[in-house]
Structure formats: structure tokens, C-alpha cells
Amino acid sequence: MPLITLKSDLLRKVKEMKIFASVYEKKKSADKLVLVLIETAVSSSFHLFLMSLHAENKLNRIIFDECHLIVTAANYRDSMHNLKKLRLIITQFVFLSATLSVSVLQEMNKMLFLLNNVIIRASTVRHNIAYLVKQITLFVLEE
């Protein structure tokens, strides 16, 4: 259920930015941006959809958000191991993560047969996140 909520939330956000987007649900989409869950992305119907976009020169890139999950969720989401099939499509792949460690990156490279990556590490400004630091007095309860 949380994945469906995340997908819906992302779709709402891109539509607010006036980006034509849709969620892939085993049907073709004419939108510029197509959102898909990993479990659907590894299906043969989605692979055929990507192949047809590629043949029509309409596939610009494949973007993985929260790409660290490819490795960290592989123990309980079998679909992560099938993502390598998407690499058969000749296109640009973009992997996004705010928490991608070097060891997870190395494992992801092995899982997806990635070579010669261009890695960009940069800060991001998130207006919807705030931090508050309070100093508290430490006290010990007497027995």
C-alpha cells in the first residue's frame, strides 16, 4: 500500500508542475513522463512498451528514484534482481538517491552491470524539510 501512495503522490506533484504524466498500468501512454513501480517495470508488457518507445525514438531515458533500494530491498523484493533486463534497452539510465553509500553503489553496479558511471554528488534544497535542535538538561533519577 505505501508504494501505491508514493506513486500517487509523485503523480500529483508532477501534475502540479504542469508536467504531463501518467502511471503505467499495462497500457500504452502518450505522456512525456510515465511512472511505474519496480514490480511492473520488470514485466514483459512494460519491456515491450519500452521497446516500442525506443523503436519510435520516443524513449529519452529511464530514471530510478531511490535507487539505493535496488540493493537494500533486494532481500525481500525479488523484482530488484530482474531490473538488469531493462539494461538491454539502449538508452540513458539515471539513478537518484540521497542515501547511496559507496558500498551500495558498488553492489548496484554489479547487479545492473553498470560501468563508467558519472556520479554527481550535490546538495539539495528542500523547502518542505526543517530541523530543530534543542538542548536539554540531562538528569539522573535517584534510586
Q: Main sheet: which strands, in order across?
A: 1-2
Radius of gyration: 19 Å
Low-pLDDT parts are none
End-to-end separation: 47 Å
Average pLDDT figure: 82
Secondary-structure element series: HEEHHEHEH
**Percent range for helical residues?**
25-40%
Strand tally: 4
Biggest sheet, in brief? 2 strands, parallel
Beta-strand residue fraction:
5-15%
**Helix count?**
5
**Oligomeric state of the chains present here:** single chain
Inertia-based shape: globular
Short description:
The chain is built from five helices and four strands; from the N terminus they run αββααβαβα. With 143 residues, the protein is α/β, with parallel strands linked by helices.
Characterization of this structure:
The chain is α/β, with parallel strands linked by helices and 143 residues long. The protein has 5 helices and 4 strands. The strands form 2 sheets. A two-stranded parallel sheet has the order 1-2. The longest helix has 15 residues. It starts with a helix and ends in a 31-residue tail after the last helix.
Fill in the keyword field for this structure:
143 residues; two-stranded parallel ribbon; single chain; 5 helices
